[in-house]
Amino acid sequence: xxxxxxxxxxxxxxxxxxxxxxxxxxxxxxxxxxxxxxxxxxxxxxxxxxxxxxxxxxxxxxxxxxxxxxxxxxxxxxxxxxx
Length: 83
Hints:
By secondary structure, the protein is mainly beta. 11% of the residues are buried. The chain has a single domain (1-83), classed as Leucine-rich repeat, LRR (right-handed beta-alpha superhelix) (Alpha-Beta Horseshoe), CATH 3.80.10. A four-stranded parallel β-sheet has the order 1-2-3-4, with no helix packed on it. The mean pLDDT is 90. It is built from no helices and four strands.
């Protein structure tokens, strides 16, 4: 699933509920600033997650707690760690 080049700044909790078979998710080149805790909880089969080129400044501590199969994570080109 790909959400690219959008003006989406926020994804609500539960937006990925019911997508348990999702293996590859790209949310890139947009305006997302952060993700609510638990947003990826049901995506236990997720292997690739690309969050590059957004405006992410911070990620919740346990955001990827349920992603035991995650092999690839790209958070490049964000504002992570910047005020």
